[in-house]
Model the fold of this input.
Amino acid sequence: MEKEAKKEAFRKYLEASGVLDALTKVLVALYEQNDKPSSAVEFIQQKLGGPSLPEYEKLQAEMSELQIRYNELLAAHQEKCQEFEEFKNSHFQASTKETVEGGSPS
Done:
């Protein structure tokens, strides 16, 4: 009984959110096509506003390239931060040494 209640709740959710209506419209549009598309899935994706398979693959490749570039920039940033910290520490130590030895800090 609980399984049926879950199914009914899910159906109501799909109906309230407009999913059933959107899918019905797309399936009707596919049914009414005189020349059926070679890929029904791609037709449905396009009608629902998604990218075509070639567009999706292009976006995936672009995302992969951007992830690589991000990782490169992040590594360079971390390296520069480490260099800066080392510079700061060496400058602070030199300044402290001069002060302790009676020299004037620069």
Summary: The first helix runs from residue 2 to 16.
